Amino acid sequence: MSESNGARVAIVTGAARGIGAATAIRLAQDGFAVAVLDLDEGSAKGTVEAIEAAGGRGLAVGADVSDAEQVQAAVDRIAAELGPPVVLVNNAGVLRDNMLFKMSDSDWDIVMNVHLRGAFLMTRAAQKHMIDAKWGRIINLSSTSALGNRGQANYSTAKAGLQGFTKTLAIELGKFGVTANAIAPGFIQTEMTKATAERVGIPFDDFIKGAASQIPVARVGQPEDIAHLASFFASEGAGFISGQVVYAAGGPKA
Ligand code: NAP
Fold first, then answer.
1. Distance between CA atoms of residues 174 and 180, nearest Å
2. How high is the pLDDT of residue 6?
3. What does the domain layout of the chain look like in residue ranges?
4. What class is the 9-186+223-248 domain?
């Protein structure tokens, strides 16, 4: 029996804040023991405190998802301290927006490394535990930007790449009881969209109002909107849904 007293274990990357934090808290409410992984272990502790305050079990883990050794060490530690991880939410992400002609080599490489290499390394390390358990759920954070977005040649490529990754995982891992699905959010109110507002010089409140005016449900998304969908994909009953991309954007278009 694992230290989590038999609870299934989930890992959420980039879970110190934003969509990742909301997803970690939601999965804990659903009964998972949750590893809250972020670059800095200290910054992940706030999410763990929120999980524990609500009666759940969490573990703060520091790791850079784009570093193979750190990823393996993190997954090994999670397996030892919480139990074998059977849910993985690849959520860690960064932006390095720029028009193509101004985009640097490092703008490209950092975005590919965190989103694509990060999801690859985390999934490769975690899948062993899912296959041993003959049960698993992999959830990858794509974006409406996968459909193309001005100033995001790097990010839109990575987010489209994650959709192909998801579909291939679904095909390879399905026979082991493991599903893989992608969530493609539209505008979600987080530090990431706040940073975009700052970069384009628009007060965040005005940026939110402008975005909401283009969204059929007449509001921007909140991290909990995405956590709800992640909760569904992680659930027992979602076992026949795999290789799908769900756009969660308050309407049918990006
Ligand atoms: P966020 O508030 O910027 O949070 C991202 C988290 O990921 C941060 O805590 C960050 O840590 C962490 N992180 C960055 N690089 C990492 C690395 N190499 N290893 C481990 N952790 C790392 O972002 P968010 O808005 O919640 O977005 C979460 C995910 O949803 C991302 O994949 C994003 O691309 C996607 N998404 C967001 C939106 C949106 O509108 N917000 C829309 C579509 C898709 P530090 O703070 O230490 O950098």
1. 8
2. 82
3. 9-186+223-248, 188-220
4. alpha beta
